[in-house]
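Handout, section B. The chain below has 373 residues.
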Amino acid sequence: MVHGPLREPAALSGSDGTGRTAALVAAAVLGALTLVSAAQLYTFRRASNEGVSVTSALLFGVATWGVWVAAVPVIIVLGRRFDFRPGRRVVSVVVHTAALLVIHLPATMLVLAVGLRLFGNGEAPPWREAARQALVGTRLHFAAVLYAALLGLARAVETRRHLRNEQERAARSEALATQARLAALAARLQPHFLFNALHAAGALIDEDPARARAMLAQLGDLLRDALADGESGDVPLAEEFRLLERYLAIEAVRFADRLRVELVCDDAVQDAPVPRFLLQPLVENALQHGIAPRASGGRVSVTAHAVGGGLGIRVFNDGLPPPAQLHERGGLGMTRDRLRTRYGAGAHLELTAPDGGGAEAVLTIPLHPADAT
């Protein structure tokens, strides 16, 4: 059974929706300015006893702001691609200055042409003088302020959407982490598991007291880790491997000599942050479906190393292959939900049956959560 890469829900990506929202907000603001300009012109000309109609005033308002309304999507796209980040500031200034002039000059010419057409005496528009005033007068200052305001408005809308998405993702991640912690605790503390662990320790007290004490210490450490309340939900990979050691040490006593364990974590990735209890459901699945059904038991191997720009973790067992109808409502389903929430499309989890026998789970996640997309 093979599962492809996890994909982030469309509701969490939001880039297209954010752009549309920013464009609609900017267009609404400019539309309001259009009505204000039309009302001001109408009121001024009526107060001056000059001829004006509502239609003419509205046409002049549309001419004043129409080019800017049409340019809003372009400004938003340019604002995303040239966002004045370090290393891109010079090119951002050049691009936005050029865009400002490309928008401002036609807007100024259109206002002049429509104004003379509606309220002039038929004289030809003084294009050269209008261009000079557009480039050196207060109109250019106002246009620059307007352009910057539209950039800021688009950024504010996108930032607000991004923060809301991050809050929703954090809330979901916290809820899933809590569920996973409780599920992991319940899985380890099922009555038969706890009874078997304590019974095995009790049986060793007379014949091997040192081993019995060591097993009880492992069980105590396991309980303490399961009940620990991490602040961020992430732990270093080395700590996750120490948790596996304690868990598998207890399982090794339960399986007697039928379980062999191999844990290998490269030094380069030991400090990589991973969600708490990320690996336990994968190992538990290997024990339950691969090793436990075999009278001879088998070997479980967990290895972690850097893969390209990410972290690769392989959980292999040489027992039975995964069932054809493997249900993922429990630990595996919870693991996929946590990965999807934590890393979006940056996480991959595959369950396969290698040609040489056994089963393996291959997990790839970003080394740095900030790189997730």
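Note. DSSP finds eleven helices and seven strands in the chain. Compare this with the example in section A.
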